[in-house]
Amino acid sequence: MIGLLKIKSFFIEIGELTYFARRFFKELFTKPFEFKELLRQCYNIGNKSLLLVGVTGFIIGLVITLQTRPTLEEFGAESWMPSMVSISIIREIGPVIIALTFAGRIASGIGAELGSMRVTEQIDAMEVSGTNPFKYLVVTRVLASTLMLPILVILGDTIALYGSYLIENTKGDVSFLLYFNKVFNSLEFGDVIPATIKTYFFGFAIGLVGCFKGYFCQKGTVGVGLAANSAVVFSSMLLFVIDFIAVFVTDIFFEI
């Protein structure tokens, strides 16, 4: 019985999130357009995540190279290291791990921020004063996270490849020019374009879930913590679903 209630509440929440997304697209194309708030949110989201994404990307490059190099050495295939690392990072590992760290930082922050505004009745005050809180608070944050995540993923992937180069240079005395020549020779548009496109969907899902959880926060100050926590959990789960769909669609497209 309890399991059925949880399943029912899960599908109800999916329906509410879908309606929330529909309202976002409706408000997105209606006036007034909050450009100043959008730019402020882009700066805040990008600036707050910059160091975290940089460190994450650097460690990704170091760890993948250190873990993979001994195996390739057993088969005398060290020369394949730049190609293998670059394809694995660009296609899958970089976007997913950076999106997960982004979700932990941004989804929780948005959920807590909007949740505290709901609990302290600031959102209600905006509605009474004639301001559209959905337009000002939700649309700008979702759009900012959608625009910022692809840029952060590109930056993180670049730093990850540089971290991989440092290990290769230390272990195998590979020059910078040789390493990155092999990287760019191994990459194709079919590796870069789908991986970049899906990061827009990642960013949209993270921003939407964070705003959804915070906007409908309840149960007082306790609900603020629950909103932040559930925003991270729900957005992380949604990232894996979107990633599976993206990989599945890309595989079908390139098979055709």
Automatic annotation (TrEMBL):
Its main location: membrane. Coiled coil: none annotated. The keyword Transmembrane applies. It is a multi-pass membrane protein. The keyword Transmembrane applies. The chain crosses the membrane at residues 50-68, 80-103, 142-167, 197-216, 228-254. It is found in: Membrane. Pfam families: MlaE. InterPro entries: ABC_MlaE_roteobac (IPR003453), Permease_MalE (IPR030802). Keywords: Membrane, Transmembrane, Transmembrane helix, Transport. Belongs to the MlaE permease family. This is MlaE family ABC transporter permease. It comes from Hyunsoonleella rubra.
